[in-house]
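Give me structure tokens for this 239-residue protein.
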Amino acid sequence: MATIAIYSLKGGVGKTTLAVNLAWASATLSSRRTLLWDLDPQAASTFLLSDRKGKDSAQAIFTKDVDPEKLVRKSAFPRLDLIGADASLRGLDILFHEIDKKNRLAKLLDGLLKDYDRILLDCPPGLTETSDQVMRAADLIVVPVIPSPLSERALEGVLERLGSKAPVMPVHAMVDRRRKLHAEAVARYADWPVVPMASIIEQMAARRAPVGAFAAKSPAAQSFAQLWQAIEKRLVRKG
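Here you go.
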């Protein structure tokens, strides 16, 4: 099993878009038993992949009141499951501080080892107790970076906080090559994967599905597939 965290200091950088499309690619293109764990109280990944409305119990996983397996939901896509988020996660940072267990998330992930090949974490933004738990638990941290100075500065903050805890894969997200700033950033970091800004990606919310499920031949879907292939290669080298 490998755990891939989709994380950024900044919000609004396409984190959930990456998480949902990469989870779909893992399950569909690589035929991996895949779990997407939504840790963001905004619950955007949960909305995109599930029609069910559950009680506010997501935080209870971390207090041992609820077994993680009891909150796993099947998605509409083969081999892709979901642990959904809800408003209770707004108190997760305080909970982690109170229970004072630095590797609580890592231990919960270990308990899911028998059931999944790949677990993707859709993480809330910011430098918090939750992000520290994620950094200790993840095998790879994928960081979406909009081609802008502020977004690049946020990446620097992630790298500084991480040190050598886990490898990081920056990804240029929401790229419009017609914009000079974007084109220059992509050229400056030519080895970073690129996900374009595209209207087809915006349709995910209306269709409540990953791009590959309804527009497999689109450039956007192909960019997610290529990014997933790059992630798999990184995981193989790490292993």
